[in-house]
Amino acid sequence: MPALRLGSIAPDFEAQTTKGAIKFHDWIGDSWAVLFSHPADFTPVCTTELAEVARRAPDFAKRNVKVIGLSANPLNDHDKWVQDINEYGCKYAPTNVQFPIIADPDRKISELYDMLDAQDPTNRDAKGIPFTVRTVFVIDPKKIIRLTLSYPASTGRNFDEILRVVDSLQIGDKYRVTTPVNWKKGDDVIVHPSVSNEEAKTLFPDFTIHKPYLRTTPLTVE
Ligand code: BEZ
What is the similarity comment for this entry (predicted)? Predict the structure, then answer.
């Protein structure tokens, strides 16, 4: 199986989820998608992560991003665990998990996306078969993989960062800009190196030249 790189087409698959059977590409449709794996149901770090993703559902929706989780447990476990997650909630408020969670007990999709843990002996099922690490795939409406992340089972992800990257990708697709260190929506952006100073005068009238190769500009986006 060729490596999944930035720019690869996200492999299509059929799956059972907590919201019914899906064909992945059809489910994505014209949206962006975040596919994220978590090691196993009824585990503490994962419970906090899924509660947080449920809490941030409006932030994903307003960016036209659909979110889908995955773990290598069967559907009936997922259904029971979702009740626990909603009961636990998160530190801010009760949650209501509405996004689908893929059931992948035979690890078919985990293998397709190279998600399985090869290094943590505690991240395995009772038979010693690895669960997944915490991967994130940001996929655009053309089904192209635009971001990959892999976190160990022991470290919960930062979903603010994932939303921040989506903002950067969406702005970069629309305007000829890149985003600097620790950038967040509303901050100045960088004029793309492929834009000449002549073009920049028209495209970004308020741009500043700090170095010949480093030019920034305010950018008003909706
Ligand atoms: C957790 O979600 O807490 C977890 C899962 C597998 C291994 C270690 C931690």
Answer: Belongs to the peroxiredoxin family. Prx6 subfamily.
Within a 10 A sphere around the Cβ of 182, how many other Cβ atoms?
7
Residue 33 in tokens: 């998608």
Q: What digits encode the pLDDT tens for the residues 130-157?
A: 999 999 999 999 999 999 999 999 999 9
Annotated catalytic residue 46: yes
What backbone torsions phi and psi does residue 144 show, to the nearest 5 degrees? -90, 135
Same domain, 83 and 108: yes
Segment 13-60, tens digit of pLDDT: 999 999 999 999 999 999 999 999 999 999 999 999 999 999 999 999
From 46, 115, 190, 200, the catalytic residue: 46
If one residue of 41, 43, 53, 115 were mutated to test the ligand 1 pocket, choosing by the most ligand atoms within 8 A of its CB, it would be 43
For 24, the domain range is 8-158
